[in-house]
Amino acid sequence: MLVLSYTGCRLALSYTGCRLVLSYTGHRLVLSYTGRRLVLSHTGGRLFLSYTGHRLALSYTGFRLVLSYTGHRLVLSYTCRRLVLSYTGPRLVLSYTGLRLVLSYTGLRLVLSYTGLRLVLSYTGLRLVLSYTGCRLVLSNTGRRLVLSYTGHRLVLSYTGHRLVLSYTGCRLVLSYTGCRLVLSYTGCRLVLSYTGFRLVLSYTGCRLILSYTGCWLVLSYTGHRLVLSYTGFRLVLSYNGFRLVLSYTGFRLS
Length: 255
Description:
Strand 10 (84-87) and strand 11 (92-95) form a beta hairpin. The chain is built from no helices and 29 strands. The chain has a domain at 1-43. With 255 residues, the chain is mostly beta strands.
């Protein structure tokens, strides 16, 4: 049996238990079919669409636009230059009022935030990236990389290439680990400490101290005063400003 009825603004079509109803009352449009109901309504500046628990709402009041769908909520609004985009579950939030951008994903968590210029990226505990206003901190375990940098008066700490750099402008302070070099200077009175290979140099305003070790050779000098200690085979030599001390042990002989 097929029945088509029209009463006021209501149109009903039924066929052997499967009933289809289309009604329009005021600003409301309802379409239902055997328990599954679709509702489209318009009230003021609001447009609402729902389908059997899955709810979709679109509203425009003033400058506000809202679109939502069953827990997975999407909100887009423009009121006083505000833009909000959110998505629940694996949450996505985009806001323009406070210049905030947040992107997060549960499980293998991904978070991107722009409010404090902060960026956090995490993947199975292997990688962490944190950035804040040019003062950047990067910690990574995938490539065994650790980087700490600070702009302006620069501080850099890197672990991938075994590089450590600390510098301070004006009264300059430089600490480097890549070439095994350490330099410390302070306006006029200069102090330099470097270690490259087996050589250690410490100087302070003309008074220079050098300690070097190459093979079995140890040399310590301080502004013209030179101390040399060498050991080759069974021979030990200690000399100081032309005064030479030799200690040798060959077989059972000591001199």
